[in-house]
Fold this protein.
Amino acid sequence: MSVVEARLSEMGLTLPDAPVPVGAYTTWVAAGDLLFLSGTTCYVDGGLMSVGKVGSEVSLDEARQAARQTALNLLAVLRQALGDLDRVARVVKVNGYVNSAAGFDRQPEVINGASELFLAVFGDRGVHARTSIGVSELPGRIPVEIEMVVQVRPGPNAGPG
Amino acid sequence: MSVVEARLSEMGLTLPDAPVPVGAYTTWVAAGDLLFLSGTTCYVDGGLMSVGKVGSEVSLDEARQAARQTALNLLAVLRQALGDLDRVARVVKVNGYVNSAAGFDRQPEVINGASELFLAVFGDRGVHARTSIGVSELPGRIPVEIEMVVQVRPGPNAGPG
Amino acid sequence: MSVVEARLSEMGLTLPDAPVPVGAYTTWVAAGDLLFLSGTTCYVDGGLMSVGKVGSEVSLDEARQAARQTALNLLAVLRQALGDLDRVARVVKVNGYVNSAAGFDRQPEVINGASELFLAVFGDRGVHARTSIGVSELPGRIPVEIEMVVQVRPGPNAGPG
């Protein structure tokens, strides 16, 4: 078993199925050793972990959990793309968009739910640059949307992408 | 004639003039084989195809058309940058920002107007990763703003950039 | 003294200390010759140059100044990362997020405060692709958040990142 998947297992985490795009695009594209991942959200068991604006309909703690679930879904995309999460050389950049109620300004604490999972799973290779912003609307009223750029070690990419 | 421009022609499309930056920046920059394109919008014939918030002032269908026109303007930037659209190796990443009325949550359907054009024009090379979000304000009240990253085949880049 | 730092000096500018991340991430990550910088804002002397929504609480001119200060903070990150600003080969991409009051649509004029500084400091190497959007909320009610991608010349990267 790969080192990273062993760590996931120790943490009691199992990767979900990779999310399916909800439009005319795909979940990842490789360009050289960079992998660009599409924005995704807190899908869980065929539904969403939470829905609505953070700071009113969704609490800060629920939003952090939603960001963590979103990060799990991004890991599922990476495993689908790479075959093995040990091929992640570095999490380069994370962009987090928080569906924010008027006056909610704690977006970084929300996105920490994702960032902390990447750190726990990848260690030093999980340390990333990041931007967190608050937006007024997200597709299907999801509370959070996260995209990322990852640098990968050489090897054959898998499907479907 | 290049394969991609022949396809555009079959689709009855002609590329507009490339948009002019509205600030202290340029429309594209190359770094290695990646081309980073500035965010642009639905310019047409010296004006805008539509103006205002999607979901109130601009209908979903109008917004889809605006996204498609924005994609045409991005293609015009690519032709200006590359000389020949056949040098596009892959549309890597598309980010779409929709000027959203309160409660409008169908951003992916809007941005599909751009994504579907890239698929039609480039085929498999047009399949991209994507993020669509809703924002509260865009420059000059444009309904949609789209930026992209493209991987290109070697060759001399043209101007103006 | 490096050429770029001499120019800063001529302009009467001194670089501030590099900003400290306010979450589980770092201020920059290198991938090949690209440097991805985290979103940052108008920190000055341990505080913020301005706070609140542009177009109501913060004027256009104050916001431009805030964007310029944000650009200075990004330069401080670059010096921390690279040791010497002359190693900047090209400012590739700038993304500017403006905390916008309802109806404020002059985001490009705000972000010009940053873009014009990059042009003044780096000359042709400072010409970049750019996207400016308006958002409804930003962390800690900052008026502007800016992130960037920079291409660098070979050389050892420094810390802390």
Observations:
- The helical segments of chain C are 3-10, 60-82, 107-122.
- Chain C touches chain A through 27 residues (CB under 8 Å).
- Residues 33 and 40 of chain C are 21 Å apart (CA to CA).
